[in-house]
Amino acid sequence: MTTAAQRIAALRAELDQHNHRYYVLDQPSIPDAEYDRLFSALKALEAEHPELITADSPTQRVGGQALAEFGQVRHEVPMLSLGNAFAEDELRDFDRRVREGLGEQLPAGDLFGAGAEVAYVCEPKLDGLAVSLRYEDGVLVRGATRGDGSTGEDITANVRTVRNIPLRLLDSGWPRVLEVRGEVYMSRAGFDALNARALESGGKTFANPRNAAAGSLRQLDPKITASRPLSFCAYGIGQVEGSLPDTQSGILAALKGWGVPISAELQQVQGIEAALAYYRRIGEQRDALPYEIDGVVFKVERLDWQRELGFRAREPRWAIAHKFPAREELTELLDVEFQVGRTGAVTPVARLKPVQVAGVTVSNATLHNMDEVLRLGLMIGDTVIIRRAGDVIPQVVQVVRERRPADARAVHIPEQCPVCGSAVERTQLLKRSKGRAQVSEGAIYRCVGRLRCQAQLKQAIIHFVSRRAMDIDGLGERIVEQLVEAELVQSPADLYTLSFEQVLALEGFAELSSRNLLAAIEASKRPTLARFIYALGIPDVGEETAKRLARALGSLARLDVALPEVLAWLPDIGLEVAHEIHSFFADAHNRTVITQLLARGVLLQEEGELQAEFAACARLAELLARLEIPGVAATGAKRLAAAAGEDLEALIALSQDWLSLKAIKGLTEKAREGLRGFFAVPANTARARAIEAQLRDFGMHWQSERRAVAGLPLAGQTWVLTGTLESMSRDEGKAKLEALGAKVAGSVSAKTHCVVAGPGAGSKLARANELGIAVLDEAGFIARLAELGG
Ligand code: I6G
């Protein structure tokens, strides 16, 4: 008979193992649901036996009581800082000092006078918060911040909530007392998700992952820390009672064996030149790493040599941080100007006193929208923190309030468009619910000038001619600007009336180049329907949506008249986008431009029938649900459709026949009221009839002829492409799959049929393997396409 204590111990050991596999190794071996069952079993046992609850139980990670203040912790072995270097020569100096410091101990160099090389352990320097974790007899007993290096804050309750920190060391052989030192950090993805949640709930956002990690760890309420996506990575040790390996890499390997996470990028190298090569390699990968780093750290591998070298002031002589250029700098906000985009959005842009950030001079930064200006509390004249990460446009992440000058000025959205002088209006957000449209203020302001506004016109033309749209070769931004400024082009349709003389008169054009441009314009007159829809620049209709609309509806004429409720029947087209499409085609100016384009010779390719899978796809119950009749949800709609014999007219009649409605089993009072009220309004009845008529026209109506699904070989399947393909681009691979009827998705899920993995495939391939999904390499993919005639 096992006792409760034994069962609790066994469950904890099992959960610790799974936690380690999930959070440290990233290789879970059981589904989440099974983990949850084990966890619940442990919780239930602990609830029965509260006297057996210990702080190292996996159930205790959720965070306990809030503290009034943090206690203090003295570090027996001080938590030091590292010396920094930026230039390669500073690193060579460091290596020279190491070799001189070791003197006799270093073996002789080679016959040609080169000195012996020192082995270094290299790893990225995570941008987080240094902590010390104390384990006694393998159990985590304390967590502390660095503080001033001698005394830190006691953050035990908080570190216990960090999922990849073992509450109990795995395996055996650990020293009786072991202080593990490392960095608590937040991954980029975790940071983005945390900020997105904060924005949604109107909470405070963090400027960068480091601040987010520090802010999360220094919470007096550990439940808050528990809700934050923090991770830990060990880089060394503090106080130790017991024995450990005698090399830096040996110690880290031992920690790893005991379940403590260490860097996946750890590498041992011979000599400083190899260390510098490591720095360059990590520098190239910096943007692709899932976490932020601010440099790499080199440490002498042998511990006896570390001891020999000792410390200077408060820095070890045996380690150095080789920093990357900083990504955040201070500068001054000189002004805020407003730019007008393709859809008329008026966006604030920060004009800055030029400053070098990560090797590039930054004088502008995006401010996204006026809500962002408000959130930052930005005023002209402020000192601000600018951040430039990778290829991302520089951002203003914070205002330094203490440095605000007395004459700082507020930022105001202009009432008139800075380009065309038309009115600037705040966008209205339309939310439809329960049959009613609710309007609220959006964050975006728009110039109402449309194509009368040169800024919008230029952007619209640039988009129209772009490679993925009409693909007019040689019509770059500079030429578009000239065409618009010379008023030769006032809409995309005017491109098709340009004369040789007009082009020749443009700056930089000679006879041949003029002829080439006109030939390219002529050659663009046969776009596919999908490209044409995309080229129109309908708000929220990207390339994918355009393809979907083209494939599903098969003709511009259908799209032109499609009602929002009908469009929303198509996969991945939501009601909001459906309304955007509908109002685009309802706009008189847009209609004129489309008519002119067609009249001037643009001839759409690949127009055809409505796709077979949509034939007779609509049901009366679905139509009812889409009408958002108060009180009528999916089940009620099904009951009503059945009672009306799948006939809309019968249903309209039924809606006013109280007795018959009462006779419908299971229909709620609210639904009856809602239905009666809804169809009592003539406009509602007319709308329902119009939708039904259109479904008939398109062949989507439930009584339409049900054609056999076109029988494309991959219809209904979802594929994912990952890694690189050599014989074709990913876009080409995607097009081939789509032509065979497959949907191509960006992420792997249980619904994925097959993953095509080229070299460099990473997490998607791992996920596919985890889920047991078929994986093809490039050769297999090509063979499969050939089999299917693709
Ligand atoms: O702050 C640090 C970051 C990373 C470190 C460190 C480190 O190693 C990868 N190592 C030491 C020895 C110290 N600070 C003091």
Q: Strands, helices and their partners?
A:
Blueprint: H1 4-24, H2 32-48, E1 72-74, E2 84-85, H3 88-102, E3 119-126, E4 129-136, E5 139-145, E6 151-153, H4 156-159, E7 177-186, H5 188-200, H6 209-217, H7 222-226, E8 230-241, H8 248-257, E9 267-270, H9 272-285, E10 293-300, H10 303-309, E11 311-312, E12 315-316, E13 319-323, E14 328-340, E15 345-357, E16 360-366, H11 370-376, E17 379-380, E18 383-387, E19 395-399, E20 409-410, E21 424-433, E22 436-447, H12 454-465, H13 477-485, H14 500-504, H15 511-523, H16 529-535, H17 543-553, H18 556-561, H19 564-567, H20 575-586, H21 588-599, H22 620-626, H23 634-643, H24 648-655, H25 658-662, H26 669-679, H27 682-698, E23 718-722, H28 730-739, E24 743-745, E25 754-757, H29 763-771, E26 774-776, H30 778-787
The structure holds 8-methoxy-2,3-dimethylquinoxalin-5-ol.
Mean pLDDT: 90
CATH H-level superfamily title of the largest domain: DNA ligase/mRNA capping enzyme
Assembly type of the shown chains?
single chain
From the spread of the alpha carbons, the general shape counts as globular
Beta-strand content bin? 15-25%
In DSSP terms, counting alpha (H) and pi (I) runs of 4 or more, how many helices? 30
Number of separate structural domains: 7
Query: Distance N terminus to C terminus?
Result: 64 Å
Major sheet summary line: 7 strands, antiparallel
What are the bound molecules? 8-methoxy-2,3-dimethylquinoxalin-5-ol
Structural class call reads alpha+beta
CATH class of the largest domain: Alpha Beta
Uncertain runs: none
CATH topology annotation of the largest domain: D-amino Acid Aminotransferase, Chain A, domain 1
Rg, alpha carbons: 33 Å
